[in-house]
Specification:
Layout (H helix, E strand, L loop, with lengths): L9 H6 L7 E6 L2 E5 L5 E9 L2 E9 L5 H16 L4 H16 L2 H12 L5 H19 L9 H12 L4 H41 L17 H5 L3
Antiparallel strand pairs: 1-2, 2-3, 3-4
Helix pairs in contact: 3-7, 4-5, 4-7, 5-6, 5-7, 6-7
Length: 230
Amino acid sequence: MPKRIAPLTDAKIRTIKITEKPQKLFDGGGLFLLVTPSGGKLWRFKYRFDEKEKVLALGAYPDLSLTGARSRREQARTLLANGVDPGNIKKAQAAANTYDTETFEVIAREWHTRNLRTWAVSHSSKIIRRLELYIFPWMGARPIKEITAPEMLAVLRRIEAKGAIETARRAHQVCGQVFRFRELRIWWTIQSFTSVFGKIASMASGKPLRPSTQAIRISFTPLLERSVST
């Protein structure tokens, strides 16, 4: 017969003595509080998925209360009961947050790196040099999702003002590919988690789980193709 775990209480959590080694205070159902030697109190949920033991970080006490931690544990257990790894949900949320803050330079350099194997060395060098000279100084540090068409156009006009018409045209093409690369990264992430979110939606509606019959489609017009033609 499995050992019965006495549920935690706020009083016990508040008065726990800090030791030189990490401590685990179990609440039952896979939920436990990790108490660190520095005094941190971190909620964790231990579970198994695909025959592997995993641990999900839920938050820190007291920002996340005992009641709140138990609620998140039950949400995770519900996902597991329906064949969904709760860790994947957290990864999807983290990815979404990342897409909100990534700068143009970060995306551009990733796009450039991924194309190195298919480009000649001279070609890849010209592209990154063009970005470093004419684009990054003006909008490299800007979150790429916040860059507007007029802002992009102003950068290209600055290149044209130096008499470098052909350089402006090539910079336009490169930037357009960077924006499209970002959109494809978002699309791939959504596609990867489509089945997961489909299961969640079915669970919320109470309908039986079914395989997804239609992939999510995202329609977009590249920002630069809308701007420079004006």
